[in-house]
User: What shape does this take?
Amino acid sequence: MINIENYNRIRKLAGKDITLVAVSKTKPGDDIQALYDLGQRDFGENYVQELVDKEALLPRDIRWHFIGHLQSNKVKYIAAFVHLVHGVDSFKLLKEIDKQSFKNNRVIHCLLQMHIAKEETKFGLDELELEEVLTQYREAGFKHVNVIGLMGMASFTDNMDLVRKEFHYLKRVFDQCKQHHPGIDFRILSMGMSSDYPVAIEEGTNMVRIGSLLFGEREKKPGT
Ligand SMILES: *Cc1c(COP(=O)(O)O)cnc(C)c1O
Assistant: This one.
């Protein structure tokens, strides 16, 4: 069951300048179709097999975002159709995406994931690692993978001051990247989920990833 009231409210708040990615992981195709029928086109999934299965069944013009932690050996399963990969955290993965994208005669857009939360368990790069990956990426001159921004997940907490600090920090890194790497087209900042998207919007996000507010609670916690 989708929550149409929440959908309309979030769409209105996001406006034209913020892309809403509806996170449909673990949810049935019927729910995705229902949101699609209201005009939604961007959907996010975390698991490769689930994404492959859904892509085969649902409308062709859906833009599928892979927002989970992508393993190099699984890139090949989604390379033919994925629209944006949010969670890239190594040069090795970029290289594999370039390879599989080439095989499919495509260019795949990616976001580098920054580690901004207190929890050690979350994936992502620190600032130094980000610079390393960007340097390697520039030197490699890939033709089939295109880094277009950053993604981050704030701490899983009710403490919105902490969340705000983390988003503020990510926005600052994003702005610095734009300045320091004019050759890279930094234009997407993916931050904000059901529990914290209003704060992310205030801190300057232009892409939010929202699941439970649209599709209802999941069995599993986000990120697991
Ligand atoms: C599951 C997930 C979301 C959506 O989480 P909700 O709290 O349901 O909005 C967003 N981003 C990532 C990376 C996720 O894994």
